[in-house]
Amino acid sequence: LESLAVAAAEGRPTVSFEFFPPRDAAGEQVLWQAVRRVEGARPDFVSVTYGAGGGTQERTVRATQRIARESSLSPVAHLTCVGRTVPQLRQVVGAYADAGVRSVLALRGDPPGGPTAPWQRTEGGLDRAIELVELLRGLGGFSVGVAAFPDGHPESRTPSQDARVLALKARAGASFAVTQFFFDPARWERLVDTVASQGVDLPVIPGIMPVTNLRQVTRFAELSGTPLPGDLVDRLEAVADDPAAVRAVGVEAATRLGERLLAAGAPGLHFYTLNSSTATLEVCANLGLVRGRLARA
Ligand code: FAD
Fold first, then answer.
1. How far apart are CA 11 and CA 23, in angstroms?
2. What is the ipTM of this complex?
3. What cofactor is this protein dependent on (predicted)?
4. Residues near ligand 1 with C-beta < 6 Å?
5. What distance lies between CA 281 and its chain's CA centroid?
């Protein structure tokens, strides 16, 4: 990823933000408000998640193309193996290339039935992220990223399986990884050390989700198999009736996590914004990661 090399040469970590594709015109407006606000922070890249169904996949492609064409942000396009044949996947990649997108996060994707449903390959499609990495490397012209799981992928049996699969994806041509959100920095360090011990040099950018809503993060944590630290839950529950106080606790926890990860040598931080930039930008400001000028909320 070019922006990783640029940031490393400048002796600073990358900062990046993840969005999801809007469902309707109102959602589009919310997304673009967030896009315009984060432009002020001059992030190294942003990414747009890729949905499980045909309609949401098209919305992802459109949102990513629009960000590439109409904003100053550099999008990394998510792409999954779900619901597409190989020729259809090539078409999506072509649409990204035409919009000037130069970097793709290659994922297997969650099963259309949700993260806990059994995986099923689409007839004529691909079965694993590694096959999509190979397809993209074969087409050429893209830097390719992959997913990593500090708390383990729900289908993996052991932490060493997660590290082994990540090393395989790097050997297949991935040049960076972005992680699922997590709360214990030691888990990220263990994954990175295990991958490095296999002789693989792969920047693994930790994903951070600032908690602004306890119910929502509890649901996400259940789906992804990420343990929520008991002391964080206690602090959030103590102020549960006060949304501003909940957000303040979430921002403080995400700031501490970011500090510890950067101190441990993380190459950058990737923030799950849920299309709302306020908490994320507060965390970035606390960490000194805002490079431009932020407009008022
Ligand atoms: P894979 O790398 O294919 O792994 C899937 C499972 O198979 C894992 O358990 C892995 O250990 C196992 N496995 C893979 N290869 C081997 C092998 N050679 N030998 C043994 N076991 C193997 N989902 C979406 O639908 N859209 C998105 O936009 C999206 N964005 C994401 C962004 C990030 C940063 C992350 C971390 C996840 C994202 N996901 C997204 C979720 C992701 O698609 C799911 O977690 C999916 O279940 C696994 O994807 P993967 O790319 O890691 O798959």
1. 39
2. 0.99
3. FAD
4. 49-50, 52, 78, 80, 105, 107-110, 128-130, 147, 153, 155-156, 161-162, 165, 168, 178-180, 207
5. 16
